[in-house]
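[job 4471] stage=fold_predict status=RUNNING
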Amino acid sequence: MIITKKALPRRTFLRGAGAALALPLLDAMIPAHTALAATAGAPVRRMGFVYVPMGSNINAWTPGGGGFGQPVKGGVDTLTELSPTLRTLTPVMDQVTVLTNLELQNAYPGTHATSNASFLSAAKAKWTESTDYYLGTTVDQIAAKQIGQETALPSLELAMDLLTTVGQCDNGYACVYQNNLAWSSPTTPLPSEAHPRIVFERLFGEGGNSATRLKALKKRASLLDRVNEDVTRLQKKLGSGDKLIVGEYLDTVREVERRIQKAEGDATDSKLPDLDRPIGVPAAYADHAKLMFDLQLLALQGDVTRIITFQLAREVSLRTYPEIGVPESHHPTSHHGGDAEKLEKLAKINAFHISLFAYFIDKLKATRDGDGSLLDHTMYMYGSGMGNSSIHSHSNLPIVLVGGGAGKLKGGRHIKYAEPTPLANLHLTLLEKLGIHLDKFGDSKGRVDALLTV
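[job 4471] inference complete, writing structure tokens
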């Protein structure tokens, strides 16, 4: 396909006092007399990871049945129906791949700290509670080093909890293993951010102008008010389709900012602060999670970053979920010992977490990006570093892959391994989908052949 019109630069920003708002991909950014594949309209590949702690009720997770300790019949099945836990992903089932019987051998001897640490590194954490910790570079950071220079932020690390604990957190392992998903080197963890305002300012604040930004924040000035003059000038240059895209994008930015401001106002008005929740985040867990997912949406849509990690909950979490009928803490519930009531409640927590992820995935699908949607051009891996949390097992992990990977992923499938297979095989394959070839990653023994056929 040949484009025959003048182009707006892809790196176009709306600027104002202490603000720099990256724009989504517009038709106006595609240069004239150029093949689409050679323009800014060519699909950009993006990759994200969402971590959930303490495994799953695998009986309710696995499509078509299967459960704790049951043998797995290898093969590739077409997904015709998702399991109870995954059901909220049904609208995008054609872009869902469930992988059964993946394992993390390097997470043993079976701790919460090593579950989190090995999930993206597939490496064995050095047993220490001091500062001489050592792990391995995580898959997201390998990707960030290759493609991260093309964006303002090489990667974005997010969480739901501000994890500042030090020393040892679990069986003699340093807290750093439990607190951080992303590591840029074996000795360099990358802290995650849980505060929506800080993330918002990282995405849209103008670097080197902190005094101006702080002044605007104190005045409760909207970011869009600060860039209003640039918006007006830009709209005069755009066609009707691009005006609609920009309008919807700015509406999302304003709505996200409004929710952040509301949370900050609620925190100011509260007489009894929640000590487990950072000041200025929504009181309800689901509201906070959706806000963090919407920030990811904006980061991807504006091409501020292409690599994201998100810790949707932390290991050994004592969070309760009374809003879904689980008033008991997550961690003791995960030690179910086969108890039917605890298993049912664990499945409720698992399904609740997936429903929040599905909220985000639905938005990716609804957001235009070039000749497709953001979901078409993105791949997200969701899962846990534990399988059966009751015995701290790292086999038969709950893992699901969602997205089109810019034409590199075929969904609607359930890939099952008869024998336990390293999760690192999937990491290696995802890097391959980004155009990054490695012979080995972590304890990998190959690639996910069923994904390589696309």
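[job 4471] summary: Residues 1-42+196-280 form one domain.
[job 4471] exit 0
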